[in-house]
Amino acid sequence: MHAFTEKDLRASFVNASLRERNAIVLPDLSHVGWEHLDYLGWRDPKQPLAGFMVVPVDDRPVGILLRQTEQRARSRAQCSWCEDVTLPNDVVFFSAKRSGQAGRNGNTVGTLLCERFECSANVRRPLPPAYLGYDVEAARQRRIDALRAHAEGFARDIRDSR
What we know:
Elements lengths: L5 H7 L5 H6 L16 E5 L2 E11 L2 E9 L22 E7 L2 H5 L3 E7 L4 H6 L11 H24 L3
Antiparallel strand pairs: 1-2, 2-3, 3-4, 4-5
């Protein structure tokens, strides 16, 4: 993922009003390891149920305002994007308004995601070899490609709903 500016990030939110965009507290972009990210996700400590993510789609940022459900799952859930079965973190359900008229009508899309958006780190973590001759690096790259496809598909679904 290439670096985006604060202006790029604010303008990228497709399912937020102008007032909501201006109120978003952005992360410190000088400390972001862009080369190790497939999407940028962050939480605002002042809004514990809000989540924000920016996904590159066709080299352009697509920002999505997410809302976490208050209720926790009874059993351990698996992240729909990184699909890591040995997660070191919690997974929660997020919903996002669709863009445009569909979002104003109340249409939403939901997904299970790592609570603090750790997916990029999870897919890059080396896995133990499944069998003799197992190509660990190829498996890692497949996981990275799958994460990018999941994130981009979700962003397109939110953005392109009219």
